[in-house]
Design a protein that fits this description.
This protein is an all-alpha fold and about 220 residues long. The chain is built from twelve helices and no strands. The chain has helices at about 5-10, 15-35, 45-50, 55-60, 65-90, 95-110, 110-120, 130-135, 140-155, 165-175, 180-185, 195-210. Helix 2 crosses helix 5 (about 65-90) and helix 10 runs antiparallel to helix 12.
Length: about 220
């Protein structure tokens, strides 16, 4: 069995009862946190929506913060998956960055992602450990996933990087700084696929080729 076949086989395996319960808790938690905010969110309400028991919820996640972080982890996995696909396929860098950028931006622009980010920023003063943990398990992990892809492309001789991690962070910041920042501040901003593609294409061109020729 090839690596790709093995991976497909693993993905196709049905979830265990415990895994289904965990997924149900995370889905319900996402709803409750976004509707009620972190402080007001009730663990009992989450159990009511997901089924199961409070004892099972606490056994799996420890406390409210543990559940909140697990919910963030699940969302981050959706974003890093696309980078893993391009890394496994050894996709040429320009093509890979365009796909990664479009998927990254599209996921960040989902209404749920925007609301979650606003919620996390609002926690920074009273619960600073949560945004710090989010940074470590979210943006930092996404950045490392992209850096791994860039290192692969450097090994193929396509690019040269002095610091792949910093380059990855720069690319991600450039990608999100336009459309995502606007959407966070204005709920009427809802970029479509064409706008996302145009924005990402510009970022990829800037990242790989630059846009200004400096002639002193």
């Amino acid at each position: 069995m090839s690596a790709a076949q093995k991976k497909t086989s693993e993905v196709a395996q049905p979830l265990s009862r415990g895994e289904k319960r965990r997924a149900a808790f995370i889905a319900a938690a996402r709803q409750v946190f976004l509707e009620q905010g972190y402080e007001a969110a009730s663990m009992s309400e989450i159990v009511l929506r997901a089924g199961g028991s409070l004892s099972t919820l606490y056994a799996q996640f420890g406390d409210k913060q543990g559940l909140f972080i697990a919910m963030l982890d699940a969302r981050v996995r959706r974003i890093t998956e696309s980078m893993g696909v391009e890394l496994s396929a050894h996709t040429p860098v320009e093509e890979g960055l365009r796909r990664i950028g479009e998927q990254f931006t599209s996921k960040l622009l989902e209404p749920e992602s925007l609301e979650m980010y606003r919620l996390i920023v609002g926690l920074a003063r009273k619960f600073p450990e949560i945004p710090k943990e989010f940074q470590r398990r979210g943006p930092d992990k996404i950045c490392q996933a992209l850096a791994d892809y860039l290192i692969d492309r450097e090994s193929a001789g396509e690019i040269h990087l002095e610091d792949p991690y910093r380059a990855a962070r720069l690319f991600l910041e450039m990608t999100r700084s336009g459309l995502v920042s606007r959407a966070l501040l204005d709920e009427d901003v809802r970029p479509d696929a064409d706008e996302i593609r145009t924005s990402v294409n510009m970022v990829v061109n800037m990242f790989l080729h630059g846009i200004i020729r400096y002639q002193p």
